[in-house]
Amino acid sequence: TPKSIYIEALTVDCNALHLYSIPERLPLNTQVLLLQANNIEEVKDADNFPANLTGLDLSQNNLSSMININFTNSHQILSVYLEENKLIELTEACFSGLKKLQELYINHNLISTISSNAFVGVGNLLRLHLNSNRLQVVNSQWFEAMPRLEILMIGENPIIKIEDMNFKPLINLRSLVLAGINLTDIPDNAFTGLETLESISFYDNRFVNVPSVALQKVLNLKFLDLNKNPIKRIQRGDFSNMLHLKELGINNMPQLVSIDSLAFENLPDLRKIEVTNNPKLSYIHPNAFYRIPKLETLMLNSNSLSALYRNTIDALPNLKEISIHSNPIRCDCVNRWINMNKTNIRFMETDSLFCVDPPEFQGQHVRHIHFR
């Protein structure tokens, strides 16, 4: 507001000073303490933290055990960074002194075991990064102590499988990242009850089919990332009846060859679809899209498409821009509509839109061809 006053938090920067312990006699008004890239192995003097400390960065140190980290009476701290340490286990109630904690970053450690009650006492936690550890299971009991959590990143762990109701206690979860876990499927009820969940990332897993049943039960899903999965076909109904979905990414799929009729159906709020960099994708059915009234952006570049049917575009009444460059376009009557100047759709990167066939048009710009 016009009457607001911006006051920068007082930060004490002790990064990369070869410290083996937390400095004593910190300024009493310190709010953020940076201790990144030191040699700290234990935190014993939490009682001596400045009373106004809200942010603590201990990333890239030598912390290996939560037993050696004392957060007792650290009630005022809101953010803790413990990335890139050597932690192997989260013991019972190991964060219980952080009553007001909102953000906890413990990614890129060696954590393979988490006590069922590890997060007791952090009921105000909003963001939790557990990604890039060595977890093999997800225990729903972990989450019972954090009902306010909104963002959970748990990707890049060797998790064997996701179970039904794994995330049920997270009634306020908005964003879930399950990237790089090598998942091959998701049980139908994995996300049941997550009524506030808006964003899911399955980037870089091993799905061969779209987990459509589980996804349709995420009633308020808005953003879906399925990039870099070995899905071979987008089949009829794979993306249907997701009433609030706004953006969808199915890029970088090395095995994807085709998109079937009615693969995308009844997606009334969808605004953007990205289907790019799929080296084997050579066919999109003319009726692949149905009842998608608000789609504005369709990204189809860098595939192996030789044609895009006019029917496909006509089914998208609100389409404003499309990218089909870097495809082996065949300049024949099927693609004639591109040059007919009867559309208000903007073609992106037209300088990269070339004919590959027939031979007499090879290498010429598609928009410059006089079709027969």
From TrEMBL:
PROSITE patterns: LRR (PS51450). Keywords: Leucine-rich repeat, Repeat, Signal. InterPro entries: Leu-rich_rpt, Leu-rich_rpt_typical-subtyp, LRR_5, LRR_dom_sf, LRR_TM_domain-containing. Gene3D superfamilies: Ribonuclease Inhibitor. Pfam families: LRR_5, LRR_8. One of its GO terms (cellular component) is plasma membrane. The keyword tRNA processing does not apply. This is Leucine rich repeat neuronal 3. It comes from Paradoxophyla palmata (web-foot frog).
